[in-house]
Design goal:
The chain is of the alpha/beta class. The chain has 2 domains: 1-31; 42-304, 4-Layer Sandwich (Metallo-beta-lactamase, Chain A). The chain has helices at 2-30, 83-92, 108-111, 114-120, 136-147, 206-211, 234-240, 260-268, 276-279, and strands at 50-54, 63-66, 72-75, 97-102, 122-128, 152-154, 160-163, 167-173, 188-193, 196-200, 220-222, 244-247, 272-275, 282-286, 292-295, 298-304. A hairpin with a 5-residue loop joins strand 14 and strand 15. Helix 2 (83-92) crosses helix 4 and helix 4 runs parallel beside helix 5. The longest helix has 29 residues, at 2-30. It is globular.
Length: 305
């Protein structure tokens, strides 16, 4: 009789344990997605919202853009060893197709991971500036493009990716095909959604900034060249007039990015600054009028404008 009671208690506790596991699994599956490295837990994107993910890829660049028309753009994918991180991040957002893929320029901290992204996801159109490089990284990207039977469209000033009444995605640079520095060949993308605007500058430095003749006014600026003093000139910042700037850089990087001069200029023009080396992945969402900023290192939104 005592034996039966003990077995009965075991069955009872086993049942409780199983129920607890099932409840935990249900809660986890119902929770918003998190990025692989911690990420930002968010509710499902509203149908009319534009959401930009400045993915923390260390000393590099990668921006995932969920457009309000349900299409997706990816600008860069970090270093060679970050391709899997970027691909996993994209998949964690429930995305399996990149409609517009942009490689801003041939440096490995921008296009290094693109071959992995191309291999692992469905790709629509690819845009890169008309410049070649003899590096293995650049050739790996071209090989991945060829494997998928795709082609590369030229990214240059004046090329429209898409345009509708409320939404436009346009290249405002490069203006020239050749520069002494590959950084200045960077594809610069401007996105306008209703009354909100974003500017993505790759590694464009002062010379390229000066050459841009298009309207670069934007609410949110992805600061050029990881916050280096070679970019974000006073003239350019006064043309952009951002209320928010995001700097993509690696913690303790050997270049000292972001440079003090850039941070001081951004502070002086009144731009709120977010940094992937401090804030982790940064997400900015807008429904076309004002925006909200979320960061990986805070469960609460950092600010609204």
């Amino acid at each position: 009789m005592k034996n039966q009671t003990v077995h009965g208690k075991k069955r009872y506790y086993t049942l409780i344990f199983v129920l607890a596991v099932l409840v935990a699994a249900f809660i986890y599956s119902a929770a918003p997605n998190k990025a692989p490295q911690g990420g930002v837990a968010l509710e499902e994107r509203a149908e009319d919202a534009l959401r930009v993910h400045y993915i923390d890829v260390g000393q590099g660049d990668s921006e995932l853009i969920e457009l309000p028309n349900d299409e997706v753009m990816l600008i860069d994918a970090g270093e060679n060893d970050k391709g899997g991180v970027v691909a996993d991040y994209i998949k964690s957002q429930g995305i399996d197709k990149i409609d517009y893929l942009v490689g801003t320029h041939p440096h490995s901290d921008h296009i290094g991971g693109l071959d992995t992204v191309i291999d692992e996801l469905e790709i629509g159109k690819i845009y890169m500036p008309k410049v070649a490089s003899d590096t293995k990284t650049f050739n790996d990207v071209l090989d991945a493009v060829e494997r998928k039977g795709l082609s590369v469209n030229t990214a240059k000033s004046g090329v429209e990716v898409l345009k509708s009444d409320d939404l436009s995605v346009t290249f405002v640079a490069p203006v020239r095909e050749t520069y002494k520095s590959l950084n200045n060949v960077s594809a610069v993308v401007k996105i306008v959604y209703k009354n909100s605007s974003f500017l993505f500058t790759g590694d464009a430095e002062e010379q390229a900034e000066e050459d841009i003749t298009a309207d670069v006014r934007a609410d949110i600026l992805k600061a050029g060249h990881h916050g280096s003093s070679t970019s974000s000139s006073w003239d350019f910042l006064n043309r952009v007039k951002p209320s928010c700037a995001v700097i993509s850089c690696g913690e303790g990087n050997e270049y000292g990015h972001p440079h003090t001069e850039t941070l001081e200029k951004l502070s002086e023009i009144g731009a709120a600054v977010y940094r992937t080396d401090l804030d982790g992945t940064v997400i900015i969402e807008t429904q076309g009028d004002g925006y909200t900023v979320y960061t990986e290192n805070s469960e609460e939104n950092k600010g609204e404008e």
